[in-house]
UniProtKB/TrEMBL annotation:
Function: Cleaves the distal alpha 1,2-linked glucose residue from the Glc(3)Man(9)GlcNAc(2) oligosaccharide precursor.
Annotated ranges, domain Glycosyl hydrolase family 63 N-terminal: 1-155
Localization of this protein: Endoplasmic reticulum membrane
Protein name: Mannosyl-oligosaccharide glucosidase
Keywords attached to this entry: Endoplasmic reticulum, Glycoprotein, Glycosidase, Hydrolase, Membrane, Signal-anchor, Transmembrane, Transmembrane helix
Coiled-coil zones: none
Annotated region described as Disordered, given as residue ranges: 409-438
Taxonomic source organism: Timema monikensis
Polar residues bias (residue ranges): 420-430
EC numbers on record: 3.2.1.106
One Gene Ontology CC term in the entry: endoplasmic reticulum membrane
């Protein structure tokens, strides 16, 4: 029984192949020998949004399985406090009629539009929550035997409604229709709004096919007009890949509602945030089906290119989650469905902890590529006007809570300075998780990536202020202060390694060892003690300069270096050294010469940002190379050569792995190029589409 997008289901492939974000989508799924195509089309009208229809087609790639039986389950459910009702309807294929405050009165009808239906059953019941629908189905299934044909089937039992305290049956909040069909067959599901009284014809059968085709034709035309991949010489197969990647990002946008769990110095423990909605893309439908703050800034680069209004809507939702201090929780776990997919240790959000302010990157990207579009459309500039005070508050929060001990320095909060379990205490707040920092976190740390993020944010705010005719001098002054080459070099350039580095209390002499097993009186211990960190060399305040990786590149990645700076030349030289970051598949996250390259952080935590190739950082590197290849200076030609090579390597490998595995991946192996981690990961790995289009 399939329900969630689960890695463990091991589907050969599932992806939206077309999706425009507003009116239609087409999705393909390969589950063993069976092929499923789902699609939907919307038709606006009435006072509650209008109608939509969905089509599910079941087929097989194995001719021997023609005539096999497959069951589809169509769910209709309401959340607690929705108001209104739903109830079963229809004689042959059980549909639903209902009414809610948001949807008004509506009906859902099911039609067998092709092939043969073998059996239909339904369930009308009270489910304990949206996160337990699968469990409700499983506990309700029954074995049924047909007296005439002797066929045995697994079916739903019909109405199972508990009684309330007054002895009266409760109203259902969950209705499921099971349609068992003989492969191949097609099911059309038609939602009609009662307030839409001007419809000419129901959106199913031939009418649906015609409307879907029209939407598909528009999608293909718009895709080429937006990304110009045919003009750039990409093959038909490569363009289909790019369309699927974009569509999976758009199709992964979800609407969530609920309250985060937060902790602050003002509370005795974790408390609920206020209940709020969130429209957001997600990094991975299977593994990370919720909003992540710094991921969303990268998602916004692609989404705004496709549909600026959707991206502005997403940003508006995120900034509505800002508290009075200017803080936004970095991981959004809203509602029971989202909560059920998150380990307990990651649920509570702490208001001292940041995440890279990548929405400033999104806004800078929009200003530099679509400034004219901001002036068009329905109140786009008004949205930016309303966002501006919150952007100011967000920036001020960063620039006051994340500062270091010395002027002009910044330090990620949230590292554990007391743990002895981690080889190098994680910096989850940086987004780079286990990337090596100073071995012993303390207040003397200086993080070069955070300093660069703040400088970029100041620059973006200055540009936004100028567009809105506001006084942005203080942001421009902050940018000039933080991007001053001499000042940056004093704080973060290591003369020993000739690279940009963090600074802090550090030693490379750390190893994970298992403590000796304590002797007991003739009894063997039940468990081996957990490995702990052992320090073999004394710590000292110094640059963390034996580590070379993504963090070392940040002044380059965020384009803060002067095009004439010799340090730019040194970075370009280091960039292409195989013992550092260069591979034929993209830039690895940590140099092979670094002490913690591919080292586990605990005995349970494999390396994450310690070698594998991540596409968001590779996009940033290609973007920076493109920038410096267009700037006058001694390194212009070298940047151009590296730009072409790195862009080619990243695109080629992601596409090759997509062809081989059917998926875009969270990260890629730096030795083989093979996809690894979660899949499908059409969060920031989808930036491959912008690399193909050369949009930066």
């Amino acid at each position: 029984l399939r329900h969630w997008c689960e890695l463990g289901d091991n589907l050969d492939r599932y992806t939206w192949v077309q999706h425009d974000g507003t009116n239609f989508g087409v999705q393909e799924l390969e589950d063993g020998p069976f092929l499923f195509t789902t699609s939907y089309v919307k038709r606006l009208g009435g006072r509650h949004g209008g109608d939509w229809s969905a089509r599910i087609t079941v087929n097989t790639k194995d001719s021997k399985l023609q005539g096999e039986i497959v069951s589809l389950l169509w769910y209709t459910a309401t959340e607690e406090k929705t108001g209104g009702f739903i109830k079963p309807s229809g004689r042959q294929l059980t549909g639903v009629v209902g009414q809610t405050e948001g949807l008004g009165a509506f009906s859902i009808k099911l039609f067998n539009s092709s092939g043969q239906v073998d059996n239909v059953s339904y369930l009308s019941t009270v489910a304990p929550g949206l996160h337990l629908l699968k469990e409700t189905i499983i506990s309700s299934l029954r074995l049924s035997s047909d007296k005439q044909t002797k066929k045995r089937r697994i079916v739903l039992p019909g109405e199972i409604l508990p009684k309330g305290h007054d002895g009266i049956k409760l109203e259902p909040n969950f209705i499921a229709t099971q349609v068992t069909g003989i492969v191949p067959f097609t099911l059309d599901v038609v939602f009609e709004s009662s307030s839409f009284i001007e419809r000419d014809e129901t959106l199913f059968a031939d009418t649906y096919t015609r409307e879907l085709q029209r939407s598909q034709d528009e999608f293909h035309h718009r895709f080429e007009a937006t990304f110009n991949l045919e003009k750039k010489g990409f093959s038909g197969e490569e363009i289909l890949f790019a369309k699927a990647v974009l569509s999976n990002v758009i199709g992964g946008i979800g609407y969530f509602y609920g309250a985060s769990r937060v902790e602050s110095p003002y509370t005795r423990g974790p408390v609920p945030y206020w209940k709020a909605p969130l429209l957001t893309a997600v990094p991975s439908r299977s593994f990370f089906p919720r909003g992540f703050l710094w991921d969303e800034g990268f998602h916004g680069l692609l989404i705004s290119t496709w549909d600026l209004d959707i991206e502005l809507d997403i940003m508006g939702h995120w900034f509505d989650l800002m508290n009075v201090e200017g803080w936004i929780p970095r991981e959004q776990i809203l509602g029971q469905e989202a909560l059920s997919k998150v380990p307990e240790e990651f649920v509570t959000q702490r208001n001292s902890n940041a995440n890279p302010p990548t929405f400033f990157l999104t806004l800078q990207f929009i200003l530099r590529n679509f400034a004219n579009s901001l002036m068009d459309g329905e109140d786009r500039l008004g949205t930016l006007e309303r966002l501006y005070p919150r952007l100011q508050a967000w920036f001020d929060w960063f620039n006051t809570t994340q500062i270091g001990e010395e002027s002009g320095t910044y330090r990620w909060r949230g590292r554990d300075g007391t743990t002895n379990r981690e080889l190098n205490p994680k910096t989850l707040t940086s987004g780079l998780d286990d990337y090596p920092r100073a071995s012993h976190p303390n207040i003397d740390e200086r993080h070069v990536d955070l300093r660069c993020w703040i400088a970029m944010a100041a620059s973006a705010l200055s540009e936004i202020a100028q567009l809105l005719n506001r006084n942005g001098n203080r942001y421009n002054n902050t940018f000039l202060y933080l991007s001053d080459s001499d000042f940056l070099d004093t704080l973060h350039w290591s003369p020993k390694s000739e690279s940009y580095s963090d600074f802090g209390l550090h030693t490379d002499g750390v190893v994970l060892k298992r403590p000796p097993i304590p002797k007991t009186h003739g009894h063997h211990p039940q468990h081996k003690p957990e490995m702990i960190r052992v320090v073999t060399k004394a710590t000292e305040l110094k640059f963390v300069d034996t580590t070379f990786g993504y963090v070392s590149l940040f002044p380059f990645l965020l384009q803060l270096l002067n095009p004439y700076s010799p340090k730019l030349g040194k970075i370009l030289k280091d960039l292409q050294r195989p013992e550092f970051l260069w591979t034929e598949y993209g830039l690895r996250s940590l140099g092979k010469s670094s002490p913690l390259y591919m080292k586990r952080n605990t005995e349970h935590d494999p390396p994450y940002w310690r070698g594998p190739i991540w596409i968001n950082m590779n996009y940033m590197a290609v973007r920076a190379l493109d920038f410096y290849s267009h700037q006058d200076g001694p390194y212009r030609a070298e940047a151009g050569k590296l730009y072409a090579k790195l862009r080619h390597n990243v695109i080629t490998n992601i596409h090759r792995e997509y062809r081989r595995t059917g998926y875009v991946w969270e990260q890629y192996n730096d030795k083989t190029g093979e996809g690894q981690g979660s899949r499908p990961f059409t969060g920031w790995s989808a930036l491959v589409v912008l690399l193909m289009a050369e949009l930066y």
